[in-house]
Amino acid sequence: MPSNTIFHNIGLLARYADPLVHTTMDALIGILKTHDCNIFLDERGAQIIDGRDDLQVGTLRTMGENCDLVIVIGGDGTLLNAARSLANHNVPLLGINLGYLGFLADVPPQLMQETVEGVLSGHYEIEKRRLLHTTVLRAAETIIESDAFNDVVIHRWNTARMIEFEIYVDVRFVYSLRADGLIISSTTGSTAHALSAGGPILYPTLPATLLVPICPHTISNRPLIVPSEALIEISIIDGNHQNAQITFDGQINFGLATGDQVFVKKHDGCVLLIHPKGYDYFQVLREKLQWSKKIIGVG
User: Can you give the residue range of the structural domain that contains 65?
Assistant: First the structure.
């Protein structure tokens, strides 16, 4: 039947290795079809949902160019990948959580129908999140560029030897660091690897970037918060392809060598996250980090 939905062209992305994905996608397609939505799948999604000629299939680029909303089915890792892939298209993302924590994909499957129908009728909250963009230079030539929604991590691997860095912010020298690694985190990523390394939790809409050393040799090398507009430069003083590596969102890896320069800055675009009406970031922290519940006074 006709529907006055806010979003009409909706893309679906999923963690296809999850056995629950097929059932969840089938149910979601049924909900969207009830509201006369046009549904877009990527090629892998089309293989999961076979034999449906009423669905449109294309690349992530065509999905970004044509969709009003993309629904991501999986865990936070699936949403991280979608955020990087669609960062230049300004398309909102809604996450259905089939994963473990669900900081980003925050809609549980049992609330999927209620939430999706609410979003389609305009009952939702939208939040802008910043990404990071990284360029790595070797001998003054770019060898890799990548975006990251959570974090950029320079770390040792396959050895117990520390890495030596020099860190600059807006061309100003900050300090030299000997450590197992360094995390350059967005505010969104402050609850990810940075938190495990002793960094603070930053409210996700703050205009800030976080630098967190991993097991620094000198205990006075502490986490540092800088403005999101700052240009961060990390020079590898001691490292090689067998010792140092850069990782983006824990999903893209690249080997580093002595003399490499890593430049991290704010991405020109942003990620638009859709949340159910009444979304409360502090409630998410309480639930996911198992903080104590509010105590009601007695007497």
Answer: 9-122
* Distance between CA atoms of residues 11 and 29, nearest Å: 10
Question: pTM for the complete prediction?
Answer: 0.91
Helix (H) or strand (E) holding 98: none
Task: Judge whether 240 lies within some domain.
Answer: yes
- The answer on 251 and 155 residing in a single domain is yes
Asked if 106 and 208 sit in the same domain, the reply is: no
Active site residue 76: yes
Identify the three-state secondary structure at position 152.
strand
Split into its structural domains, the chain has a count of 2
Interval 210-238: pLDDT, tens: 999 999 998 889 999 999 999 999 999 87
pLDDT tens figures, 144-168: 999 999 999 999 887 778 899 999 9
Catalytic residue among 76, 106, 151, 249: 76
Long-range contacts of 59-65 (CB under 8 A, 24+ apart): 60/13, 60/85, 60/86, 63/11, 63/13, 63/91, 64/11, 64/88, 64/89, 64/91, 65/89
Which residues make Cβ contacts (< 8 Å) with residue 110, sequence separation at least 6?
Answer: none
